[in-house]
Specification:
Elements: H1 6-20, H2 22-25, H3 34-44, H4 50-58, H5 80-94, E1 118-120, E2 131-136, E3 146-150, E4 156-157, H6 163-176, E5 184-188, E6 191-195, H7 207-212, E7 229-233, E8 239-243, E9 258-262, H8 266-273, E10 281-283, H9 285-292, E11 302-308, E12 311-318, H10 326-332, E13 337-344, E14 347-354, E15 357-367, H11 378-395, E16 409-413, E17 431-432, E18 435-436, H12 437-443, H13 446-464, H14 470-481, H15 492-512, H16 526-548, H17 550-560, H18 566-575
Antiparallel strand pairs: 1-2, 2-3, 3-4, 5-6, 7-8, 9-12, 9-13, 10-16, 11-12, 11-16, 13-14, 14-15, 17-18
Helix pairs in contact: 1-6, 3-5, 13-14, 13-16, 13-17, 13-18, 15-16, 16-17
């Protein structure tokens, strides 16, 4: 198939911009004078490829102003002057990295920081010389090829055989609205924009469903003890006694994360932590830890609960840490007080919360340096024991971790409580995806903004299939009508979002634990994880809408929209 000439492709690009994005078209520079191109060739000591000469003869790059046409992620086309400046700059940096004189042949062209015969012909995402498209003017089989340069990565050639191919693809993308280098071109308010249109697996594999198909591992019977000696017979009737003597390494100290709650029962403490009823069972520490490490747990936290005087306590035996989370301590300490003792490597921390309010002034921690030997952080080991003694003197809590190791305490997997909604998180977000969100919020009446954002939230939920659950569809219908939504702890909607969060976390752990990041041979793949993560982001947007209002949720909603045409849909939603 023949590829259109550079001049023909630029003619199509000009026509599309003039019709759909006149603001961007006006920022295309006029043709570069032939004398300027020849002067740049002499200054750089490089003969420009004919495709580049033809392109510069159509437009000498663009004016670097908002709305300037760009080549998706590769940034705006450079003018002759910027090609000279960028190339000289990169040559100067690369001079100390690799000597071009040591390179030999076409295969070595990429084995350098910056090749002498490369020209940086775009200014990348940041409109600077740190990244962009380069064109090889090195004689040989790579003559005229386009490559991608990024200062923190190895340069590589693109799939375009020449600048002529790239410009033809750009013209096709503009005219047909199809992706170019992974992004879709759009015209908005007279300017060319590029959007990334996201897709997701409609029915991702559920890690929790896979876990439900497995059984919790049974506790192993105790291993038979070896005889202290082995008699060996001899022909003369004598016996030789061989004594086995093994010095086992000392076991690590038993120092679990533990949270205490005054005047609560172990059952109530488990409920506040988010215990899953079907998983509640008496377990020893060894059995709980084995269960937490099994596919049955699906990477959900495992805790055991007991009593210590007038306090209930829970120890974490597996899964992501819970007792340092403020939302967990707030829930545990409601109408009472709670004390958490946690250890992470060199740090041991005690946190006190009362009636749902964990205060930073009630946090004590010790950070010890790492040392050699069996105990890398002996200071932390001592601090853990010291804190336990202080809890006994200050709160009357008497607890020894080793005492309940073999006891069968009530235990369960957790459906972790949700993170708090930060009401101020999006307060100062002025721009989302090159869209002036601050101006929209300022000029739009609150009621109309709420209605439009509720519609956008519904579109996001449909794109991610977050709306497939009854609790969610009911909540979306209520937001559309301006009615209140019940998102209190342990409500059906809260439980649904917590379940989705557990799905996404388990999928993430399963994908990252496979042989390679994009290994699709496991039961859960990267696309599965991405689909769950998108639903969790939609859930986050709903929670922000309910708890913090439409202006606060707008940034999350619009930034997570999957359709490339969300601006047009938003305009329609604002019209109502």
């Amino acid at each position: 198939m023949s590829i259109a000439a550079v001049e023909d492709s630029w003619g199509r690009i000009d026509a599309w911009l003039l019709r759909h994005a006149p603001v961007s078209h006006a920022l295309l520079r006029p043709p570069a004078p032939p004398s300027a191109i020849r002067a740049a060739e002499r200054a750089l000591g490089v003969r420009f490829h004919s495709d580049l000469v033809a392109s510069l003869s159509c437009h000498d790059g663009v004016e670097l102003q908002p709305g300037a046409p760009v080549l998706a992620y590769y940034g705006p086309p450079s003018c002759v002057a910027d090609i000279g400046k960028s190339t000289s700059f990169l040559r100067g940096i690369g001079a100390d990295v690799q000597d071009d004189d040591e390179l030999d042949g076409d295969d070595d062209e990429l084995a350098t920081y910056w090749h002498h015969d490369w020209l940086l012909i775009t200014l990348g995402i940041g409109w600077q010389s740190s990244d962009g498209l380069f064109l090889s003017c090195h004689p040989g089989r790579n003559w005229g090829r386009l490559g991608r340069y990024f200062d923190e990565d190895t340069p590589s050639f693109t799939g375009w055989a020449s600048l002529r191919h790239a410009l033809a693809d750009l013209a096709d993308a503009l005219e047909r609205g199809r992706p170019f280098n992974g992004r879709t071109p759009l015209a908005y308010e007279g300017a060319l924009l590029w959007e990334h249109e996201t897709t997701a697996v409609p029915d991702p594999v559920s890690p929790l469903a896979l876990a439900a198909e497995t059984a919790e591992p049974e506790p192993e019977p105790p291993a038979p003890s070896e005889p202290p000696f082995v008699p060996v017979g001899r022909p003369n009737g004598a016996y030789l006694v061989m004594v086995r003597h093994r010095t086992a390494p000392p076991p690590p100290p038993t120092q679990p994360d533990v949270v205490f709650a005054e005047h609560l029962t172990p059952a109530e403490l488990l409920r506040r932590l988010g215990a899953i009823p079907d998983t509640i069972d008496p377990r020893t520490r060894a059995r709980a830890q084995k269960a937490a490490d099994s596919p049955w747990a699906a990477h959900r936290p495992m805790v055991r609960a007991g009593s210590a005087g007038g306090w209930a306590y829970a120890t974490q035996e597996g899964g992501a840490a819970q007792f340092t989370r403020p939302e967990v301590l707030r829930r545990v300490s409601a109408d009472t007080r709670a004390v958490a003792l946690t250890r992470r490597g060199p740090e041991v921390q005690v946190t006190v919360a009362e009636d749902g309010v964990p205060g930073p002034e009630d946090v004590r921690h010790v950070l010890s340096p790492r040392e050699g030997g069996g105990d890398f952080w002996p200071g932390s080991t001592a601090a853990y024991a010291r804190f336990l003694a202080e809890l006994e003197g200050e709160f009357g809590i008497t607890y020894r971790p080793d005492d309940d190791t073999g006891a069968e305490l009530t235990s369960a997997l957790l459906l972790p409580v949700l993170e708090d909604v930060d009401r101020a998180a999006n307060r100062y977000v002025g721009e989302v995806r090159n869209f002036d969100l601050a101006a929209l919020i300022e000029r739009t009446p609150p009621a109309r903004l709420r209605t439009a954002m509720a519609a956008q939230l519904g579109r996001l939920a449909a794109e991610t299939r977050f709306d497939m659950y009854d609790e969610v569809s009911d909540a979306l219908a209520r937001t559309a009508r301006g009615e209140a939504v019940d998102l209190t702890p342990d409500s059906p909607l809260d439980a649904r979002i917590r379940t989705l969060t557990a799905e996404a976390w388990a999928a993430r752990q399963m994908v990252s634990g496979q042989r390679a990041w994009r290994d699709d041979n496991g039961p859960v793949t990267q696309p599965d994880f991405s689909a769950w993560a998108l639903r969790v982001e939609a859930a986050r947007a709903l929670r922000e809408f309910v708890h913090a209002g439409a202006p606060a949720a707008a940034a999350t909603i619009l930034s997570r929209r999957m359709s490339a045409h969300w601006r047009t849909e938003l305009a329609a939603d604002l019209e109502g």
